[in-house]
Amino acid sequence: MSDLDYTGQTRTGRLRSWILSEMLRGAGYTAVVLVAIGLLVGAIRVVAWFLPEDSQNAPPPMPFSQVVEPVDSRLG
Question: Rounded to an integer, what distance in angstroms lies between the CA atom of residue 72 and that of residue 37?
Answer without folding.
Answer: 44
